[in-house]
Amino acid sequence: MRRQLWLLGLLLAACTTNAKPLLDDFDTNGLDMTKWTTAQIKPDQMRPVIPGRCTPQAIEIITLLTDSEGSDCPKDEPMCQRAEIRTAKQYWPKYGDEIWYAFSFRILGDIPRTGSSRTVIGQWKEPADDSPFLAQRFDNGVFHITVEDKGVRRVVALAEGNIDDVQSVQRKLNTIKSPAIVAQALREIRPLLQGKQSLLTDDTNVAKNLNVAPSKLVETLRPLAFVSEPEKYVGKADIELTSPLTPQLPDPSKGWIDLVYRILPGRTDNTVGPKRKAEIDIWANGTLVAEVRGNLGNPLTTEEQVNSGLYFKFGTYRARVPGTFRFQFDEFTQRSRPITELRPCPPR
């Protein structure tokens, strides 16, 4: 009964939004340039691929070692590999509108288990954001989804490991007094777990910050050892996560996965725009995997920001690593009314 009332509330809320729907099954030989922009991808990095998720064709984005400069890399990161496709601006919903997204994707090729150094494979940005407030990541071989509050990041779902253990670490990272030494400890945990010599030179101080015994330090930090930018996870974040009964994400390197997102932007400290906590609900392969509530993104201060909307990008954005990385994407839907068809077609 509670779930039925919740769905009814979503249906009523969705009726108040006017975002232009966007659908694409990528069955044409070329990318539909009325729906997408390609400022951050080169023509030879994308191609049609057969078969698609449900229909004959999907789109594939390829990242090679030779793509050392990518397209539109930041000045402070000249060696990035970037190949991303963005929704056309006419489809950007106004900030504060409730929007639903659905799509399918999988990953093929070389997927490093270590040294991946930040791999983003899908992201949403709001008007005041530098880093995405919501992102799909594939760091050190672990697929996971993150959200951010003013640049402080939290994992909200993952394909490998236990989300409850990750949440336990993240709660500790909310209250520490010396962020730099704890971030360094997180950075050094992964080599230590791989049997390399310990680099933790200040175990006692780090343990004190986390309020654990020094002998428990490695065990405490282990669940979050896969993240590639540990400094982003240290600090206060107003983010609440409700773990459902099945919080595990599927692994996109093992086949197509179907994701559905419900996104309602907001912050309680916005100067303009909705002054409420944001809401994000995520389904993977038809199963609810995360319910997120909190202050997401950065505070909005002008009406121009509110009207400029938020946008979605898919593809690959990472630091340069060896190998060929293939990202296949299909069955995209963006609309303001609820998406009840949580899987577009039977699994393959």
From TrEMBL:
Q: Which Gene3D superfamilies match?
A: 2.60.120.200
Instruction: Please verify whether the record's keywords include Signal.
Output: yes
Q: Name one Pfam family in it.
A: Polysacc_lyase
Instruction: For this UniProt record, give its keywords in alphabetical order, as a comma-separated list.
Output: Lyase, Signal
What does UniProt give as the signal peptide span?
A: 1-19
The cross-references to PROSITE patterns, in alphabetical order and at most eight, read: PROKAR_LIPOPROTEIN
Tell me, what is one Gene Ontology molecular-function annotation carried by this entry?
lyase activity
**The protein's name in its UniProt record:** Polysaccharide lyase-like protein
Originating species: Rhizobium sullae (Rhizobium hedysari)
